[in-house]
Design goal:
39% of the residues lie in helices and 9% in strands. A two-stranded parallel sheet has the order 1-2. The longest helix is centred in the middle third of the chain and has 14 residues. 10% of the residues are buried.
Length: 70
């Protein structure tokens, strides 16, 4: 987890490259993003990550707004 998409992608690509079983991903936590922005963050990572590695969504409601179920 990091506070910007560029560093998130660097860490995720590294994890996938060294054989991690999955990536646990928390949305950016510095600002409180709304549900649509959090959804777009996750979709961006999925689209840009050049790997089939599973993503686990890590969510602590006190640190960010709710993640929509859909």
């Amino acid at each position: 987890t990091h506070t910007n998409i560029t560093d998130v992608m660097t860490l995720a690509e590294h994890a996938a490259g060294v054989g991690a079983a999955a990536i646990m991903l928390q949305p950016p936590y510095y600002f409180r993003y709304n549900g649509d922005e959090i959804r777009q963050f996750y979709l961006t990572v999925l689209e840009e990550l050049d790997s089939d590695i599973p993503l686990l969504l890590y969510h602590i409601p006190v640190f960010n707004n709710g993640i929509p179920a859909e």
